[in-house]
Amino acid sequence: MLSSHALAIDLQPNDIVAPTPDRTAISISYVNAQNTTLYVNNVPTGASPNLESNLGIVRLGHTYTIGSLPAVSYVQVGGGTLSPDGSLSAYPASQGMTDTTIATAIWPYANHITRTYFGVAAYLSLPTGEYSSTKAFNLGNNRYSQALQLGYQRPITKSVDGAFAFDTVWYGANSQCAAACSSATNLQFTQKPLYSSQIGPIYRINQTYTVAATYVYVTGGETAFNGIERNNTVVTQRYFVSGVAYTKIGRFMLQYGNDIATMNGFMESRRLALRYTKSF
Q1: Which residues pair with 167 in a beta bridge?
Q2: Which residues, in sequence order, are bridge partners of residue 76?
Q3: Contact assessment for residue 273 and residue 255, using Cβ atoms and an 8 Å cutoff
Q4: Which of 8, 103, 206, 230 has the fewest other C-beta atoms within 10 Å?
Q5: Does position 180 have pLDDT exceeding 60, yes or no?
Q6: Tens of pLDDT along 234-271?
Q7: Cβ proximity of 35 and 269 under 8 Å
Q8: What mean pLDDT, rounded, does the chain reach?
């Protein structure tokens, strides 16, 4: 069930760096993810699932100041396919829009001279994605969610910065959960807050190329059907590596990662992301 498989709010290299005000940016991304082994309480089920998603994502943002503090807001929409295969091949695929995200970040502290930044971001996810109570797997979650994230970045050496972020996600209820809740009738699906932390170095090779590595630890997010807890707390460790090229025509990013370990849910065996960003 996709609704119970939640991840951290991944930050890209230098996302914690305070932006220049009065700029508009558009980002276009392609994300491919493959989930294979299903775990229950740290034990693989023995089945051979294959749950693959292919998404196209568009983000439109604008930078400004609140008082003297740098800030940015953006809207993100997307669409694509979610395809069950292997031992999940009997389940129908999901095609259409993903949930919409609205976000605003502000930097209480930003020092470009010392390359030291502290930012706070708030996120709101709207249930605009494709969802059917008769499907076990959906691109949309049919519920609202809110998140708060803190990020800190500072130099370690002349060319290497260290970045750290922590976020908490709070979920609304989905009162139309049938197939995804293994039920013939609708149940109320609820989920406890999910806590995530991410840390890693960012290495600026030169003015054009930057590489980064990030380790992510996720915990919490236990779900319940009609108030009955399922004892399926999320405990996931994963990583991703990123390469960024800053060119005259925009910024290009290539990212790859996967789960290292997971306690409950699908094990993500691959996540590949390509992103192009143009500001003006």
Answers
A1: 149, 196
A2: 59, 101
A3: yes
A4: 206
A5: yes
A6: 999 999 999 999 999 999 999 999 999 999 999 999 99
A7: yes
A8: 94
